[in-house]
Write a structure and sequence with these properties.
Helix content is about 70%, strand content about 0%. The protein is built from 10 helices and no strands.
Length: about 230
Amino acid sequence: MNVFHTFLFVALPYMALAIFLVGTIYRYRVVPFKISSLSSQFLEGEILFWGSVPLHVGMLAVLLLHLGCFVIPKAVLAWNSYPLRLVALEMTGFVFALSFLSGLIIVLLRRLFNVRIRVVTTWMDIVVELLLLCQVILGCGVAAMYPWGSSWFASDLSPYLWSLVKLNPHLDAVGAMPGLVQAHVAVAFVIILLFPFTRLMHSLVAPFHYLFRAYQQVIWNWDRKTVNSPDPRV
């Protein structure tokens, strides 16, 4: 194991996690009201819909699949012990990855070529979207060139990640992986490192509690058609 691998798969993960934790806590405590996706839907909504929906659905599904391979590797391997289920899982993951990719491309092109959106775009927006684009392309490449990723992730990469959690890194498995897989892992750590400084922070404050709260009844005490009428005489 050379120094380069040690940096990528030991130093970088711990540095990324430390910056992630410190940066996230700092933003929550110091500038909590600035944690937002800074939605630009009011500037342009039609193209955003066709990009944002597949992007978020694909991203969430891919993250859950990766998380499952990390957290419950034995269950994933047991599921994959039947070839049909293995193929179904791999195809499902690839479809969601393509959804993620297509949505991200649409959102990125919208940000680059829509004048109104470009005005409210920061350089970090471009950086993080390019990193995500690089990551999902690498992921699709890994899935295409090295199939049955859910199985070898659960059996080889999951022990490596758990060794980081236990503060006793074992790099044999990840060091033997193809360069494409190693790049995919390294870019993931870079995205985690930059996470607190980007709009991705809004994913940590998503209002999921809305799904479980009681229904709220809205009562109108005026004629909505009259209130919304552009005619000043009304």
